[in-house]
Amino acid sequence: MKKLSLLFAFLLLISCKQNTSEEKIPVEPDNGIGDGATPPPVFSFSENIEEAHNKTAFMNKEAISFDINLKFGGKTRLEGKVSMITNSSKVRVDKSDGTSIIYDGKEVFITPETASTDGARFDIFTWQYFFAMPFKLTDPGTVWKKEKNRILDSIQYETARLSFESNVGDSPDDWYIVYKDTETNRLKAAAYIVTFGKERDKAEEDPHAIVYSDYKNFENVDLATTWSFHNWNEEEGFGDKLGEATLTNFNFFEPEDGYFEAPKAYKIVKK
């Protein structure tokens, strides 16, 4: 999960390059009913998902926080609070053990100074990205390719491949196979590789997937409150469940001065 760590790639506000989007299907000028009505907007695969989650309402807020309880193999991987500027330009993770990781837009810091930095950079970028993914699908540097329909739990879903232009974030070699719910247009799942700390060929030998469920409408924004993680491959799709996460206590807020800045006692987290 690098873009999962990844993820971070999106996070950065890079140039205003036009993203390579999916082909849009044209509509008839009169909606096919001959009344001269104004045609509805033509959305691409990625835009449909952002629209379904109400990206406009989400981005009109300055910051959001949520509590997360993440487990893999029955063991807690992360418990605490994730806070972020809604455009992912700054992120903060406050763990239940008293450790805090902060990304101020340029550097990643951890406090206290005695805290281990193992996995810190992954934690600061990966989990917030999985959360914000429905709102970041048309970010600069995203590249899309429509794919075949795929099956999840005996239901067929539209899918498309998301990749990134070079030099986008920590893990530009990451890719995702995004599943869209055909009834709601919401994000249903995403298969992915994690290239953070490894070569792409190696990462592609072990792809995984996240499934989003138990959606809650919070201040007119649709947010998944349950994630599950699975093995995944092109031939068989979703395999064994590996982990799960529960998200609670969503809160849009205006951060106080210094909230996303380095604390007094810290050390910088390198790659």
From TrEMBL:
Keywords: Signal. Residues 1-20 form the signal peptide. This is Uncharacterized protein. It comes from Christiangramia echinicola.
